[in-house]
Amino acid sequence: MSAIGGGRSTGAGRGLGRPFAAQLASTGLANLGDGILGTLAPLLALSLTGSPLLISLLSAATWLPWLLFGIAAGVVIDRVDRRRAQVVALSARAAVLGLGGWLGASGGLTMTWLVLLVLAYGVTEVFADLGATSIVPDLVPADRLSAANGRVVGVQQVANSFLGAPLAGALVVLGAGVGFGTSAALAALAALVLAVGLRGRFRKDRGLLQDGRRGPLGEVREGLEFLFRHPALRPLVIAGSVLNFAFTGYFAVFVLWVVGPGSALGLTESQYPLLMLGFAAGAVLGSVLVEAVQRRVGELVTVNVSLFGSAALLLLPVVWPNPWVVGATLTVVGVVNTLGNVVTQSWRQRLVPGPLLGRVGGASRALGFGLMPLGALTGGLVAEQFGLAVTFVGAVLVCLLACGYLARALGNGADLPLSTADAEALA
Fold first, then answer.
1. Are residues 192 and 237 in the same domain?
2. pTM for the whole structure
3. 55-97, pLDDT tens digit by residue?
């Protein structure tokens, strides 16, 4: 089946090119700032308040912009130059973080300001992330999308987990002003790399909408209709949203299973980040292996096996609560989960016409990310009423049901942009 909205066809061994390298470099710098802020903000919150409710507002502020602005941002991304949209969003992010640096250095940072800064940062993330995702098919050949998306995931994990988080721990000692200022400088540098290193016009010709409508509301409707009427995209979004809901509920209370003298594993607070690094390491490995794996076993098999496997593996920490076993399990989950996510992201980029990528991406993420705070709340409520083990097992069962629905909905892959080898194997 021919790909939709992809680039040129080329051999698998060909490089991804300088334009993609510039985009990837900008992504790495931006995500290094993400990693710093993601660790810095909670640490600063602990010095400002002891209220669990107020601290939880930071997590809500992180994801709320996707629910509120995801669809609208998609319309904007489809209307403007996607390179310029990223530059503007990253520049706005630098300004927001610069304000945080000034407040931190002057002693004016309060919990209210911290939540507002994270919320504003989240708004810039919506636009920058949608722009970055939508521009990839214009930078690489259609048959290298999985390789490109794998590199993006790998860079994101390294920058966020391996570099950003430890760097934030060092910067917080120097003060909030230095921490926010460093993140602001990284955002500004990411914008500069795109502005200078990525040349060309990346604005799609939208033309007339399918039924003659013009204007933002008509464009929103067109994106939603395309998403929910498509026989492959619809189950991908529904299953992905349910998986996000269940995974978030699982890991929202996972720390209670791992940390403390009365926990199942009995680890200390300082050991917990080391355990979770296994997941990040697995994600990096999966991002490197994805192109070779899908070429060997096929894209459809890669998605089904990886998603079922990542869900089922999460039972191991419950039935075998050993630190080494749990660490190894999280590493493997990171590998297989990334394999499935990269391939499904590549499917979306091939299935959705270029002029619709922003709107479809915004709508799908508004649903998928919007359910994550609800998943965290549900996980906490179930754990409080029935215990941690019930929460974990329940989350795994929900994941397996979602995977079964997706496998049945996709069937033999007839509605997917499968590779020639996949199509021949399934014929």
1. no
2. 0.72
3. 667 777 787 888 888 888 888 888 888 899 999 999 999 999 9
Helix 323-351, helix 233-252: angle, nearest 10: 160
Rg of the chain over Cα atoms, rounded to whole angstroms, equals 21
Q: Would you tell me the crossing angle of helices 18-48 and 145-157 to the nearest 10 degrees?
A: 30
Domain final position from 143, 170, 200: 200
Co-location of 26 and 150 in the same domain:
yes
Residue 120 and residue 370: Cα distance in Å, rounded?
A: 17
Virtual CA dihedral for 8, 127, 225, 208, nearest 10 degrees?
-70
Structural domain includes residue 7 = no
- Better-scored residue on pLDDT, 189 or 291: 189
- The CATH number that applies at residue 397 is 1.20.1250.20
Are the C-beta atoms of residues 359 and 233 closer than 8 Å to each other? no
Residue 208 lies in a domain: no
Token look-up 């397996």 returns 400
- Rounded distance between C-alpha atoms, residue 209 and residue 226, angstroms: 12
**Alpha-carbon span 182 to 187, nearest angstrom:** 9
- Residues 366-419 have pLDDT tens digits of 888 878 878 877 888 888 888 889 999 999 999 999 999 999 998 877 667 765
- Which of 200, 234, 269 is at the close of a domain? 200
- In a domain, residue 172? The reply is yes
Q: Are residues 243 and 181 in the same domain?
A: no
Identify which of 251, 295, 10, 32 has the alpha carbon closest to the alpha carbon of residue 161: 32
Domain that holds residue 141: 16-200
Q: How many CB atoms lie within 10 A of CB 84?
A: 15
Structure-token pair, residue 131: 């722009």
Q: Are residues 194 and 231 in the same domain?
A: no
Total number of domains constituting the chain: 2
Q: pLDDT digits over 282-319, tens only?
A: 888 988 898 889 889 888 899 999 999 999 999 999 99
| Domain identity same for 189 and 158 | yes
| Residue 412 DSSP symbol | T
Distance CA 116, CA 84 (A): 25
- Same domain? For 424 and 325 the reply is yes
Same domain, yes or no, for 148 and 296?
A: no
Q: Is 107 exposed, middle or buried (0-12, 13-18, 19+ CB in 10 A)?
A: exposed
User: Residue 259 phi/psi, 5° resolution?
Assistant: -105, 140
From residue 270, alpha-carbon distances to 201, 273, 325, 401 in Å are 48, 6, 18, 35
Query: Sign of the CA dihedral 131, 133, 139, 141?
Result: negative
Contact between residue 31 and residue 164 where contact means Cβ atoms under 8 Å apart: yes
